[in-house]
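User
Please review the sequence:
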Amino acid sequence: MKRRMISALIAAAVSVTALAGCGGNAGETAGSGNGGEGGKESSASGTEGSASGTDAPKAATGEVEKIRIYVPTSGKFDDMDEVMAAINEISREKIGVEVEFKAYEFGQWFQQYSLFLSGTEDIDILANYGGYLNAVSQGAAYDLTELLPEYGQDIIALEGDYLKSGEVDGVQYAIPIYASYAWTMGITYRKDVVEELGLEEQVAAVKTLEDWGAVLEVVKEKKPEMTPIVSMSGNTAPVFQYGTWDDLGNNYGVLMDGGATSDVVNLFETEEYARLCGVMHDWYEKGYSSKDIQTQTDSFIVLTQNDAAFSAIGNGDFNTSFYQTTTCGKEMGTVLIGDPVARTYNNVTYTVMSNTKHPEACMKFLNLWISDPEVGTLVSYGIEGKHYEINENGMGCYPKGQDASSCTYHLGSNLSNINRILWESENPDYADLLVESNANAKKSAGLGFSFNTESVTNEITQLDNVCSKYQVGLECGALDPETTLPVFIEELKAAGIEKVIEEKQRQLDEFLAGGGQ
C-alpha cells in the first residue's frame, strides 16, 4: 500500500529553489483550509497536556539538549507522553535533541498567549496563531537570521521566498508553516444546483464578478427556497475578505492588481472597490441576497448544510472546491476571479523564544520536523496502529471503532501542514498542487512585508470604528454606494487613513530597498 505523504514537498521545493533562486504572503473564508482536516477534530477533553522525553544517553556530538514547545489544538493529547517518547527516539539519534510538547485547548491558549510572551513560562518554541508580530514587538522572539542557514537548510529549501513571511526589517523572527500563499477572489457555489439547472456553460464563462449575476438570476427564479448569494462568514467585516488586491496586513493602504506595483493606495477610493460595492448593491436590490444579510450571523457553510444558500464570495485557490466540499458535505465548485497571487501569509508561525537557552537545538528540531515525515506524522497523528491507521487509499484515518472524540491523540495537521501523511479528509493531490501553486504563482511586490502599526495605533483604532459603521453594509450590498461610499471615504480621511497609508508606503519602500522583493 502506498502512503499518501507530503514528503514530495521537499524534493519539489528544492528543485524550484535551485531554478528560481532565493527572492522575496496570506482564517476561514472560501479558502483552502490550508489542507487541514476541515475543523473536524473535537474539543480536547482537558485543557493542558505535557510530555517529556525519557532520560537520554549522550548523543554522538555531545549532551542531549531538551526543549519545550507550546502549541494550541482542537484535538486530543491524552497520550502525549507516549508520542513524545517515540519522537525523541528519532530526534536524539538524528540531532541530539529531546522535545517536550505542551498542548492547550484553543480557548485556554488565547487566554494565556500574553502570559506565554511575557517570559515567565519556560518555553523554547511558541506557536503563533494570527501572526507573530506581538512576539517581536515585546522582544519575545529570537533572531534566527544566522541560525537558519546553519541549522535550517531543509526549511530554506522548502520555504524559499516565503520565509520572508517570518521576517521583520530583514530579520528572521519566525518560521511560517508551508501553506497556500497564492489566492484571489473566488466564488464558491453548489455544484449540484448548477447541474440541476443546466448552468454549466454560464458558470464556465464567468470571468468577472458581474458575470455571476446571470447565474444568480436563474437560481433566484428556479430555487426560491435558496438564497442565491450570502456572506461567507456572516456579518463579519470585511465581506470582501480577500480581493484581488494585496491588503498588506490590513485594508488601510493596499497594492492593487495583486501587488503588480508597489504604490500603496486607499482601497476605498479605488474604482474596483466602488464597482464591487455597486455590484453587491445591485444584487441586493434584485433580491439575490437576503434583506437581512447585514445582520445575518450564520456562515456560508452552515447555510449550505441547511440547503439555504447557493453561493458566496471569499478567498479562493486550487484547493477551495475540495475543502468546501468536505466541509459543507455537498459537491462544491469555485470560480476564481483573476489569477492567484502570492502574498504574505503568517497566520501560523513558530518563534524561538528570546530567553531560550537552546536556540541551536530549537532550530535543529524545527528543521527535523519540517523534513522528516516520521516526525511530522507523529506530531500530528501519533502512533500508527494506536492513534491512526492507513486506509486502502494510503491516507491516514482513525483506527476502527475510534473517532475524533474517542481517539486519545490527534493534534491534527494544522500545526504543521508539512512533511507527514495525508489525512483521509484531505485532497489526495494536495501536496503536488500546493507546491505547483506556490512555485508558479505571481508574487506581490509586498510579499514578505509586515506592517509595523506602532506609530499609527490610534489612527487604526479610529479607522476600525469608522469601518464598523459602513463596511459590512457596503460590501454586502445593503447600503447604496452612490450615497454612502463618499461619506465613508470622508470619515476614513478624518480618522487618519492618509497618515496610515503614508507610513505603510514608507515602510514598504524601506523593505523593498533592503532587498525584500
